[in-house]
Structure formats: C-alpha cells, structure tokens
Amino acid sequence: MKEKDRRSKNASVTTAKGRGAEARGGGRLDKKRPPFAKSGEFKERAAVQATAKAAEPRDRPPRAQAENEAPVRVIPRRSGDKPGEHVPLILETSGVSGYHLIDSGAGEKLEQYGPYRIVRPEAQALWPRALPDSVWENADAIFTGDTDEDGMGRWRFPGSVLGETWPMQLLGTDFHGRFTSFRHVGVFPEQLAHWSWVKDQVEASRRPLKVLNLFGYTGVASLIAAKAGAEVTHVDASKKAIGWARENQALARAEKLPIRWICDDAMKFIQREERRGSRYDIILTDPPKFGRGPNGEVWQLFDHLAAMLDICREILSPEARGLVLTAYSIRASFYSIHELMRETMRGRGGRVESGELIIREGGLDGREPGRALSTSLFSRWVP
Asked: Which pTM value belongs to this model?
C-alpha cells in the first residue's frame, strides 16, 4: 500500500476521502420494504434466513468484507512465552545536520529543513510559542488550509516564491525536500531514530541484511539502509511516491545500490512473499490510518494491523534483527500496539520496545534544548 498513503501515502488517503460517504461507510440504507412483504412472505423468509444463519458453523472463517479487501486472515493463537518488554521508551530526534525543530505552539510548528524555515500545522503543540511572532512571519514557506493530518491546502511564501523541491541531506544521504498539497515535505524527520537504528544494525552485521520497507513513501529510509550495505525491498501503493523515491536515488548517486522499488498494495505483497517463502532480517512498516492500494484495495489500520503484523512475523528470517511499527494519527495508546506486538511475537524470544517518537525544540540555532513535541507511536521487536 503506501503510502503511510500519508507519505504519497497521502494521495491514497485523499482518494478515499473524495469518495465521501461511500468511503466512510456512511451511505443511507434503503428503507423501502420489498414487494413480498405485503403478503406476509417477508416475515416468513426472514425467519428462514435467521434459522439458516444460526445453523452455520461458528468456527467458519469470516469472508472478505468488501470486493477490494484482501481475504480476512485467521490469526492463530501463538504459543510460547511473550517477549520481554521495555515501556515506555521515548526515542528523541534533536537538532541534526539538515534539520531541526525551531519552535512550536498555538497549533503550529516552525522547522528548519536545509536552507528553509517552514511553518506547518501541528495539533500536538498546545502551548504558547516561545519565539516572537516576527520570527514565524518571516518563514520561507507557510502551509495554509486544512489542518487535518491529510487535509489539502496550499503553501504561502512570504518572501520569494520557492520551487517545488530543494536538496536535503540526513545521515549522509541526499534527497529532495518537497512542498506537497498535504502539508508534508517528503520526509518525516522523527523517523531518524529508527533510521539510525537500522543503519547501525546493517553496518554491524557480518553479512548483507535484507530489509523490507512497507509503506516506504519517498524512499529516504530505503536509501539509508542500502547505503549502509543492506539489500532493500521498498513497497508503496503510490506511483507518484515511487517516482519521487527514484528521483531521490538519482540525487543520492545511488542507482547501483540493491533496492527493489515496488508499486503494490502492502498486504497483497507480503501475502505473496509468505507463499514464496521469502524472508527478511529487518521489516519497517509505517501504515496510514486509512488508505487504498493501486487497484482500490482498502486498508483500515484497526481492521488489518493485526493480520499485517502476523504475516510480517512469518516472513522474518530466523536471524532477524527487528520488526518496527510506527503509527500516526490514531486514537490509541502505545500500549495497544505494544501488547499486539508482544502477542504477535510470542515464542520468538527477544524484547518489545514501545513508546513515542518525539522531536526536541532547538531554537533558532538548533542548540537550545526546549520542549518535546510528540509525533507518533511506535513498537519495535528486537531479538
């Protein structure tokens, strides 16, 4: 799928929103009674149907809920001990070369992306701003419009009008920052905590690790892992996101790195990988709350997350280094995905680490530690 899709991921989510009540399941039911109801046949037929339904085997697996949904997976009850746990774990991104959070407050955040200062909505920033309004008003780009995570809007440029893209670099990897109509800029810097962990795992390994990046968006994580020495499979449902990822690969002069760019529905892809017996050493998955695959496949996080993680467990190699889940914009505690991850990995040993990804304010120069801005929930299994 993806793309988290949020990330491009964002394009999939918007498509779903455009379908209105149909996408939300809000269509009106036809309350007209069928013609046979006049003769009393309606009650009779309803009774027959109820009897037949009651006679159905109770352990029969449920059918797919919609034509474009993947078949429902019957998740087995795993045996064995649950992994150990480390909660809560707060993974922090502070100022790094190429990015830092300058200030936040009043429902917005002011960030430094390469050469540009950018203002975007941020619902978690409940406190007052620390810096004067004049600093905020002189930003290079300000997003205006829908403040929802995936709401559409436009960019305002107080000074000179900027191009759609600009060069960025994080963890030694070049890529394009990008002004999109969904307030995103082509990269999620809070993920630096996960990317650094992946980079360390790959570089410390005595063999090339196989990394699967589901809902991979614009490919920054995939490029970082490949540059560290991994063999990467990058999956996203958005053709546009895959195109952006290839542009980033060219900018990073990484055309020869072993990366497979795959435009596909994430669930369908991992189901095929399970049937093929494919195995991965690290799996990164960053699913959206809701989205659609390239052929209209439906993704609902609360409906499909357990099945997705169960399949991911099956395609982890015996010497796997980790399974990482990030969840954005959901009304849930990290304990929800923490306990799900522990049940999924029951019998595999290791430890499940769960908590929040945060970004620390750094002031204008990036060196003045300020408030912590929570961005997402995560859960990570490690052996």
From this structure: 0.80
